[in-house]
């Protein structure tokens, strides 16, 4: 397997989620969200170098919090104003010269090991790969300003052509590093957009609907329920296995 580096970006302020501290430090199923995300990757990609990118003012808080939980080995580095800047800082902090690099949202703790490895394998082959899922809602593109009655002009978009983009986004190290030499642009909402702007095509792989990004308070409610259901299924499986011993 390729030497792998994982950059877990958790340098945001979590404005949309609210709360006293950024959402990556909130508890989910009895554990900080960021601890879950780090451990998920350590389990899926044993031996990978992990760097967590945090708001500078929360680094000491995180070190104290992480010491209370069983969190897999990881280095910590300060983030920047935009996600783009945080990824750049993460890239600079990798020390093992990885051949493959993943960028993962710190607030996406629920991706399975099978999905993570699938994206990694696609990136090893194609240079750049991301997980996506099909859109299930209808979409409208708005055009222009509201009219005198407050109606915003809009038109339907063909959702069969749309995909919802997730992380982890995996890249060959040379591809990602070269792409991140660019200056920041507002359309860089993920790493695939940066790599694509540098001229490298991105391979779409199958993501998972449960691979939620915790963005608003409602997402936490859904994630709690998913974790409880997974734990229950694991307990049932363990009981079945014990019966068959
Ligand atoms: N300057 C930033 C901004 C975001 N992120 C990280 O990128 C991921 C996805 O971003 P998002 O969900 O938008 O997080 P926030 O920026 O914290 O949320 P909000 O926009 O609601 O403030 C998160 O793990 C977040 O911590 C980061 O590392 N550095
Ligand atoms: C990277 C990402 O999670 C892919 O869906 C998304 O683009 C992050 O967007 P945000 O506005 O920073 O949450």
Automatic annotation (TrEMBL):
Its EC number is 2.7.7.60. Pathway: Isoprenoid biosynthesis; isopentenyl diphosphate biosynthesis via DXP pathway; isopentenyl diphosphate from 1-deoxy-D-xylulose 5-phosphate: step 2/6. The keyword Cytoplasm does not apply. It catalyses: 2-C-methyl-D-erythritol 4-phosphate + CTP + H(+) = 4-CDP-2-C-methyl-D-erythritol + diphosphate. Keywords: Isoprene biosynthesis, Nucleotidyltransferase, Transferase. One of its GO terms (biological process) is isopentenyl diphosphate biosynthetic process, methylerythritol 4-phosphate pathway. The record marks 159, 213 as: Positions MEP for the nucleophilic attack. SUPFAM superfamilies: Nucleotide-diphospho-sugar transferases. The record marks 16, 23 as: Transition state stabilizer. The keyword Nucleotidyltransferase applies. GO terms for molecular function: 2-C-methyl-D-erythritol 4-phosphate cytidylyltransferase activity. It is an enzyme of class 2 (transferase). Signal peptide: none annotated. Catalyzes the formation of 4-diphosphocytidyl-2-C-methyl-D-erythritol from CTP and 2-C-methyl-D-erythritol 4-phosphate (MEP). Belongs to the IspD/TarI cytidylyltransferase family. IspD subfamily. This is 2-C-methyl-D-erythritol 4-phosphate cytidylyltransferase.
């Amino acid at each position: 397997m390729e030497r792998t580096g994982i950059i877990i970006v958790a340098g945001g302020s979590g404005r949309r989620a609210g709360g006293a501290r950024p959402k990556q430090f909130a508890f989910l199923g009895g554990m900080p969200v960021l601890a879950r995300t780090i451990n998920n990757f350590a389990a899926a990609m044993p031996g990978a170098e992990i760097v967590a990118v945090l708001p500078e003012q929360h680094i000491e808080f995180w070190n104290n919090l992480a010491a209370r939980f069983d969190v897999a080995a990881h280095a910590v580095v300060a983030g920047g104003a935009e996600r783009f800047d945080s990824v750049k800082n993460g890239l600079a902090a990798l020390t093992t010269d990885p051949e493959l690099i993943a960028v993962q949202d710190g607030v996406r703790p629920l991706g399975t090991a099978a999905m993570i490895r699938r994206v990694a394998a696609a990136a090893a082959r194609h240079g750049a790969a991301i997980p996506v899922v099909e859109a299930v809602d209808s979409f409208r593109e708005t055009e222009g300003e509201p009219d005198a009655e407050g109606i915003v002009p809009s038109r339907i978009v063909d959702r069969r052509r749309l995909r919802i983009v997730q992380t982890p986004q995996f890249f060959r190290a040379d591809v990602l590093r070269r792409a991140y030499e660019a200056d920041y642009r507002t359309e860089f909402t993920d790493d695939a957009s940066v790599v694509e702007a540098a001229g490298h095509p991105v391979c779409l792989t199958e993501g998972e609907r449960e691979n939620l990004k915790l963005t608003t308070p409602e997402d936490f409610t859904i994630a709690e329920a998913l974790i409880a259901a997974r734990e229950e299924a694991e307990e049932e499986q363990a009981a079945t296995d014990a019966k068959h011993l």
